[in-house]
Every structure is written in C-alpha cells, then in structure tokens.
C-alpha cells in the first residue's frame, strides 16, 4: 500500500483524520479523570459518560441524514467543530455537576457525529482517487497514538485541570482543517429515500450484524470508560496512562496495513468471529491483571481485537448498505457500536465497577465478548444472504 503521490484533498483528509482523534483521546480517556478531579463519584462519572451515547443516538442520525439528504459533509463538519469549540469554552468555566451534565450533553451532540461522517468522507475520497480507505483511516490511528502519548505527558506536567483547554485547542485546529476538506460525490447520483433505507434495515443480514456488534460493543465500551480509572487505582501516572493508550493505538496500525493487502482473501464473518474471541481473551487478562505494566501489555491485544474488527466491520457494512445510504448506514453502525452500547455500559458499568470491583467487571466483559463471538460464528455457518442493491465498491475498502 503506497502513501506517496497523493492529491491535496487526500492529504487534507489525512490531516483532518489525524487531528480529530486528539479529541477522541480526551473524551474517551481523560474526561473521566477530569470529572474525578472535579470531585465527582464513580457513579457520577458513569452518568456523564452515558449521556453522550444517549444523545448521540439522535445526533448521529440527525447529522448523517442531513449529510445524505443535502449531499454535503464538509459543511456539517464545520458546524460540528464550531459547536464543540463553544461548548468547550463554557465547560471550562463551571465545576457544578448539574451544569457540567447539561453542557456535556450539548457537547456530545456535536462530538459523536464527527466520526461516522469522517469515515464517510474518507471512503468517498479514497474511491474518487482509486485508493484504499485504510490509507486515509490509518492516519486516525497514528493521530490517536500521537495524542495518547503527548496529551498524557502534557497533562502530567500542567495538571489534569487543563484537560478542557486542550480540547478547545484541538477543536479549533479541526475547525480550520474542516474548511480545507472536499465533499465527495455520490457514485450513483441518488438521494436518500426513507422507504429504501427501511427495506435495507429489515434485511436479516443487517439485523444479525448489528446484534453481534452490540454484544461486542458493550464490553468494549465498559473497558473504554473505566480503563483510566483502573490504571489510576493501580497507581499509574497520567504519563503511564498515555503509554497504555499509545500501545493500543500503535498495535492496530500494522493490522490495518495487513488487512488492506490481504483482508480480501478472508470472509468478513470469520474475521469478526476471530476479533470477538480475541476481545474475550483481552478482557479476561484484564480481569487478572494487577500491575500497570501488565495492563499496557494487554493493551497490545488491541491489534487483533479492534484492529481486525474495525476494518472488517466497515468493509462488511459498505457491502450490505447501498451507496446512497452510506452516511446514514455508518451512523447506525456508530449508534450501535458507540451510542447504545455506551449508554448501557456507562450507566450500569459505573455501578457494576463500583459495587463488584475490577475483576468481576472485566470477567463479565469477557463473557459478553464470547456471546458476540458465538453470534458471528452462527451467522457464518448459516450462510450469508445477499442484499439487493448493496454496494459492490466495498471490495476496494
């Protein structure tokens, strides 16, 4: 896979994809520490984490359907980061739980839709230039790795109280980069129609896929929400937490490249089954880990868990969802993977973690991953039904 001889809009898309994951690092791993710094309990942190996925159920659909309907992703991105910037400024000026709860709710309305829309634009840009989607998306992993390490050390030196200042700076940079993006063109020229979308969503293959995704997303989001608190309870510093996130992000990059070259040799459902099985192993090892160094080592399993899962899931959904519903289809995928699962894991995960402890918390997470593994395997053994009108361009994903 070659990265040279790229056109300007491909490079701007790569730069944008790189930068947006700085906010992802903050929201996924350091907002929880910031909320703890403000004096909130584990349960309150769980509620603040859960409200985002709840709001994103509506915000993902709203922004992605608007993108499909009006055929512009660039303008949506500009609005989203302008909103993040404004909410970040307001959040930095308050420490009351109820005020933070209200403001973070609005912040999440502008935060969550960025990622499915970014993937949509990356897919369109890659197809327009005859490239593989991964040559753009991999810059998200590189960006996540860079920000995971750098943010950890910055906050370790200036204090966790500066978390929102970093969020404001990164959102401002993303806003500027969004003005340089180029909207993609739908390949078949069709606008989204509600009846067609409903017909696609009723297909057994789509429903089965989303069910498996939800079962796997629950333990993944549980781990995401409480990984930093787990490390903190073991005595890890912000810098060491950054190394943990870096280990996960770097480990997925070679898997992305390998799947871009050889992934088409394997069917999607067996790959998803393998990823779910490795997730179960990862969470089981987390349940018995008792040292920050052990956790960092376990984090390298992100390569054969999320690395395999993400690329394969995007490839699968772009095959079973027609082109004119792409942004909405990826939004639905994000809602199941992030929003619905995050809502459950944040609300009940916080209580579970607080009442039962880390070992039971991760042991349950491993069991849920095994359920997803069984679901993907069962669907593969039952056979794949073809969905009329599904995109064949996904073979380039």
UniProtKB/TrEMBL annotation:
Topology within the bilayer: Multi-pass membrane protein
Please name the Pfam families in this protein's record: MFS_1_like
Q: Where is the signal peptide?
A: none
Keywords for the protein's UniProt record, in alphabetical order: Cell inner membrane, Cell membrane, Membrane, Transmembrane, Transmembrane helix, Transport
Major facilitator superfamily (MFS) profile domain residues are 145-397
Q: Name one GO cellular component term.
A: plasma membrane
Name of the protein in its database record: MFS transporter
Q: Which domain of life is it from?
A: Bacteria
Q: What main location does UniProt list?
A: membrane
Regions that span the bilayer: 12-33, 45-63, 97-114, 134-154, 160-179, 200-220, 240-259, 271-289, 295-318, 330-353, 359-378
Intracellular or extracellular location(s): Cell inner membrane
GO molecular function (one)? lactose binding
